[in-house]
Amino acid sequence: MNRHDVVVVGAGLAGLVTTAELLAAGRRVLVLDAEPPAGLGGQAWWSFGGLFLVDSPEQRRLGVRDGADLALADWLGSAGFADDGSDRWGRAWAEGFVDFAAGGMRDWLHRLGVRWFPLVQWAERGGYLADGHGNSVPRFHVTWGTGPGVLEPFVRALLDGHRAGRVEVRFRHRVTGLVVTDGRVTGVRGDVLAPDPAPRGAPSGRTATGTFEVAAPAVVVATGGIGANHDLVRATWPADAGPLPARMLSGVPDHVDGSGIAAARAAGAHVAHAARMWHYPEGIAHHSPVWSRHGIRILAGPSSLWLDADGSRLPAPLFPGFDSHGALRHVTGRGDDHSWFVLDRTVLGAELALSGSEQNPDLTGRSVPQLLQRVLPGAVGPVEEFARRSPEFVTAATPAELAAGMNALTGTARIDPDRLARTIEARDAQVATGLGKDLQVTATAMARRYVVDRLVRVAPPHRMLDPAHGPLHAVRLSVLTRKTLGGLATDLEGRVLRPDGEVLPGLWAVGEAAGFGGGGVHGHRALEGTFLGGCLYTGRVTGRALVDAL
């Protein structure tokens, strides 16, 4: 292939969707990626495959009443967009995405062969007033096949296009700069990296064996965010949120370093809202790491007590599953590098799950027999394995023993055993009333009104100190870096903008590199299921706009 209509930089989900749209219109595409072929699909392959869908058949079968107006109200209440014009494009992309999530997204993906687990999950419940942060109803649709299942139709389109001679993929090609001619982006340049047999997600070498330069009428940046570049994450994190700790985990592979965004900025692109990020406070170190500082996020139901590093409960409504960003800012605002979940064996078995494709082999492997085990007593296999193998889990028969184990893990004496016992006893007394004033206890009871939570997600009310539900567990939680909410500013066609608001000709951006649309479609907070969805939406819209532009 001697001529390319478009160069797509990055072979993750957003880049693949863009490529699929271009190929469907008969365009010729060159895809460049710094990783080995095993890394095709990027971060999306490792994801849980959750998608934010609105008024879906899956919701309606469960009696969930949803709609575009309610979803947009939730989005705006979470985003906190500014009124000074700086969020103009992000808000416009948000309105378009919600319409898509309530309209064509499910049908489009269904036609491509994507299917979903029928039990819709309720993420980011918020817990504030009606116009505040959070999902009013469950909207988190887990893809049958998780992240690999979302990728499947777009990988298939890439392979079909390759066989037809209309797409070329060059792995181990790391873009280090954009070629700008008379104010227009006309190509890319970079290093050819030495072959590396590294498996998917593992760190790969950066030894250059040569350089390259490619010209094309259009360049698409689809390189993701900055999550693995901890120095850049710390430097960019807002000062008013407290410092990010020296010890953090990575929820993304090492190659997610922000280099594509930096190359576009150097070429004249505007990076909007760089300080807005979506990291998690509920990370635990992987017992079998694939990438550097590999962490996994705990997806907890609402019953676990969430304690700070000194053993005090986090303030309402910072309960597990309600406001991740609020909990993160509480932890970092205190200057801590960890917090705790305290729970019992019953809660662990019913409510603890782990994010990611590899931690959910039943859903990833589309195994119905394995899936049915989720309704049986006890934790799912990967959770049991973490509880057994991870030093982050402490198990004890009494609060005093639990406090001793927590202090031994951190090498401190910050958890007072008597205070920990009083905290658990006070919570248990509220449960014993059958009603109670404790907001977490009442929120947990309310969660069980939703049939999915009652069946597979929320343990029946009980006293944690009841021996029948023991032993007790504590899990040390660390900050887990994940997503960049800001990014390259784009208009509604995906064209990258300059700092003066004008289009930078020849350059487009999709996915996380574009803040999932407009340089910040989420504003300050996300509703979950919107990251993969943002890659799908920006790739589809931008790919189709490119077809017209070319």
Would you summarize the structure shown here?
The protein contains 18 helices and 21 strands. The chain is of the alpha+beta class. Keywords: Flavoprotein, Oxidoreductase.
Protein described:
By secondary structure, the protein is of the alpha+beta class. The protein has 2 domains: 6-223 and 485-549, FAD/NAD(P)-binding domain; 299-480, Flavocytochrome C3, Chain A, domain 1, CATH 3.90.700.10. Helices cover 33% and strands 20% of the residues. It contains 18 helices and 21 strands. The strands form 5 sheets. Strands 10, 12, 13, 14, 15, 16, 17 and 18 form an 8-stranded mixed beta sheet that branches. Strands 5-2-1-9-21-20 form a 6-stranded mixed beta sheet. Strands 6-7-8 form a 3-stranded antiparallel beta sheet. The chain starts with 5 loop residues before the first strand and ends with a helix. Pfam families: FAD_binding_2. InterPro entries: FAD-dep_OxRdtase_2_FAD-bd, FAD/NAD-bd_sf, KsdD_DH, Succ_DH/fumarate_Rdtase_cat_sf. One of its GO terms (molecular function) is steroid dehydrogenase activity, acting on the CH-CH group of donors. This is FAD-binding dehydrogenase.
- The CATH C-level name of the largest domain is Alpha Beta
Low-confidence stretches: none
| CATH fold-level name of the largest domain | FAD/NAD(P)-binding domain
| Tertiary shape | globular
Give the tally of structural domains.
2
Give the helix/strand class.
Answer: alpha+beta
What about the largest sheet?
A: 8 strands, mixed
Query: Mean pLDDT across all residues, rounded?
Result: 96
Helix percent reads 25-40%
- CA gyration radius, whole angstroms: 23 Å
